[in-house]
Design goal:
Length: about 140
């Protein structure tokens, strides 16, 4: 009964549906997240504020060495990528020497309608003219 003396009727009943779970997140055997370890292994800028000056000085010296190590690794990676890019450019230039380039006239397909073929010829012939004057011809 409610405060008015009437019986309470649940207008929106919630049915209890039993759901079987096969997974329990409490039994997980994975390591937890270690923010300090993550920051030490990755390129993250860190700052120490609340320690005495001597500890801050030592911290900043180790941080400089850590960041220097990352930048040296990045430079090595960039140099390796540049050498690979140069090798690929040499291969491409060698392939270009083997494959002859075709001229514009040879690239016009025989199936191309005459109107497009004529327009392409006009564009090629009227290179120094404006496009409107070519269409009017």
């Amino acid at each position: 009964m409610n405060i008015f003396g009437n019986e309470e009727i649940n207008k929106f009943p919630i049915h209890n549906i039993p759901v079987q779970t096969t997974e329990s997140w409490d039994d997980c055997n994975s390591a937890s997240y270690d923010p300090k370890g993550y920051c030490e292994r990755n390129e993250v800028l860190r700052k120490l504020d609340v320690e005495p000056a001597s500890k801050r000085k030592n911290f900043y010296v180790t941080e400089r060495n850590r960041i220097k190590r990352f930048t040296e690794e990045n430079i090595k990676g960039i140099i390796e990528n540049e050498t690979i890019d140069k090798e690929n450019e040499v291969k491409k230039s060698e392939e270009e020497k083997v494959i002859p380039k075709t001229s514009v006239n040879n690239t016009i397909n025989e199936c191309t309608p005459d109107s497009i073929t004529n327009l392409l010829k006009q564009v090629k012939l009227g290179a120094n003219k404006s496009f409107n004057s070519i269409q009017n011809n």
